[in-house]
Every structure is written in C-alpha cells, then in structure tokens.
Amino acid sequence: MNTDYSIRTATPEDAQALVAIYDYYVKETAITFEYETPSVEEFRGRIEKVLTKYPYIVVERTISENGAKEIVGYAYASTFKDRDAYQWSVELSIYIQKDARREGLGRLLYEELERRLKDQGILNLYACIGYPDTEDEHLNLDSVRFHEKLGFSMIGKFNKCGYKFDTWYSMVWMEKMIGEHK
Q1: Among residues 90, 21, 30, which one has the least CA distance to residue 59?
Q2: What is the pTM for the complete model shown?
C-alpha cells in the first residue's frame, strides 16, 4: 500500500469528486442498478443524510509534492432497515476510482469503516451486491470475492431482479458480524 494515501470523513463539499467516481459505475457497470448518475446536489444530500447517523469516509492520494490530494474512493454505512430493532445493523457501500482499483484501497476503506462502526456499537454489516449469472463486461464476481476476503458470508440471492444493459442481473446479500450479540 502506498503511504501517500489517507482517509478522512467525507463532507458535502466532496460531492462533485464522488459523483465523478460513481458516474463510471452507473454508466458502464451493473454494480449499481441506477440508470442515471445523480446530480452533485442530490449526491450532496445523500452525504449529508448519511453523516447524521453513520460514517461516510473518503480515501485520498497525494498527487503533488506540495501536498495536493485527490479523492480516489469512498465508503459509507447506511440504514439497513428503518425499524428500531435493526439499529445494530448497517448496509455498506464502496466505490473506488476506476483506475485506482486493485491497490488495496477497498480493504483500507472497509477496515476503517468497520472500526468506526464497531466504536458506534454496530454488530452486523450487510452488503447488497449485483450478481451476474454469467459474468460479462458490465458485471463480474469481483465484489463478491472482495467481500469474502474481508470475512463476509453469502446469506441470500434475489434472482434476476435488476435489468440493465439489456440483461437481467441477480442480487446477493452478504453479511459480517463484528461484535458479540449479548
């Protein structure tokens, strides 16, 4: 891992940089089932909403000798289900800049997110992941493999529930317990 990376809490002012990362996933992949890239203002609202309750973090890399940085990925937790009994569970999301993948940034972000959530009393982490019945140019099993490496287990599959790029894709849920259920 390059030591020129740092993690910090996201701010609403990061919306433009985060939309730029997310845009690739909306337009070129079935990783997200959104068809249209949200506006910067809409994304700003999403960030603000998450930050009222959960961590939203970005990873930056230093891009010049004067210390200038650019955001190359982000991750956040959101409400798993909007009922009081679910308050110890969250859904996670993560996106890495297209040309910064496979540099260990996903692990770096998830480890920090997990630490912050554990400090907050969260016990269960869930990930909702697009799943191809046959891998193609828009969706492969990399996200499932990534989550497995970080200790997540497959707990459910919704068959052919998302339609994008003239293809039906499935969706899976993965889970990781990070605390003791007393």
Answers
A1: 21
A2: 0.93
